[in-house]
Amino acid sequence: MSDQLSRYLIKGRIVTMDAADTVLNAGFLAIDAGRIVAVLDAKALPPPGFETSPVIKTQGTIFPGLIELHNHLSYDILRLWDVPKLFTNRDQWNQGETYRKLITGPMAVLGRTPGYLEAIVRYVECKSLLCGVTTSQGIGLASNAGIKRFYRGYVRNVEQTTEADLPEAGTSIADIEANNAAMFLARLERETCMLLHLSEGVDNTARKHFLSLKMASGAWAIAPSLAGIHSVGLKTEDLDVMQAHGASVIWSPFSNFLLYGKTADVAGMKARGIRIGLGSDWSPSGSKNLLGELKVARLVSAESGGIFTDKELVSMVTREAAGILQWQNSLGSLEPGKRADYLVIGTTSGDPYTALIKSRETNIKLVAIDGTPRYGLPTLMTRFGPMTESLKLGGAKRALNFSDENADPLVGTLTLNEAQKRLTDGLKRLKELAIELENPIVRDTVLGVGEATTQWFLVLNHDEPQGIALRPHLPFGPNAAPTGLRASEALMAAVPLSQLLEPLPLDALTVASDPTFLTRVAGQKNLPDYIKQGLPTLY
Known about the structure:
By secondary structure, the chain is α/β, with parallel strands linked by helices.
């Protein structure tokens, strides 16, 4: 972009997350056209071509941008659900009117009402960006013309990269692949990475999702591309199978404890060398953001005797996550030739990995993607070019930069402030909006039915709509019944949303701007006390 600085030196303590775990207590990154040209000690001379380049002094610690491998972003405008009881598998909690009233229903209404879709994608992308995330799962869209795509935002989208060095990951499979082991395996073998839900829960029903991957021949429908999300139901012998086939796991401990009172056997995974990534899942029953999920992971690790070091936890959202995606040559560490995705925290003393995990969102000073700062302190952001919006976070001023000639036209120049206003209003008027959508005449007018204008809608993938599966549903047992109830099937005979929905509050962008979040966490029925008591100490 012509109005943004593209060649510069950025100084600070540098945590490279390279294979040698190199940390420069005082160093600089030389960045040009979105790539890292050099990583050098602060006393070294700038590389050729950088002799007169601007020097940005961060007075902070620089990390690779955080990579989140599991988040249903479309739902992240919703507040943390007060989970009513202990569940044993995924097929239990995503049924019934409470779930529709608080989660599926509100998103179905806003996701199909013009004016709210763009507000949702702007808002939830900012929730990720403000905690240092530079890569996440994408937001699915569908049009009245039958077109499907992902929102092209500023935070990287693992499903739709359009970049040769960033192979696209799969996060869903066709229904036919979900129900046929041979076709499922063939799909896995075609892909570099498939992020799919696997054995979510603690009972035999949850485990069947894994056991059904064993084919009649005795072979397993598992390949190195498989990254099993949650995997709470896997037993010791199941982990041996995962290890033997080179599969990996995406860990979401906060969501697991909120729903099931237990999380995956990550100690067993580590002992077997199974690669682990981290994801916050979604805001209704998970951490508000990936920074919060790191805190929960640290508490769980400590409670079990220190399974992971803080360095190992940070690696789950940097180099290990990049490795799961097969992006290790381009992202996940700060090294010459790689893309310049990074974040800066305002701490320079002590163990850097611990400092990141203990950081509040207000401690993040700068977040850049492809070398272009997208969020941070105004004093740093203005060194690179003009800002597009100012905001306050925990009483401190911050700035956003959403200028881009290739920005997705769906959102365009919509500001975060305007998106927040629209969503606050829409969540208050859910019943009214539902009535409009249920009225055929009003609905057809609003949605442009029969017109040439393309209208986009939100794809609520968590509920596995027609044609989309987030996990295998392979037949298992003597009756060869498909494993797992699809949430969309459970909701087919439900009452109209206009008779069910009530006003809801918009979830705050960060914990720093949400004075009730930790109180609501403390009231959760299934969380162990060490998480309830320990989480506030990490904020």
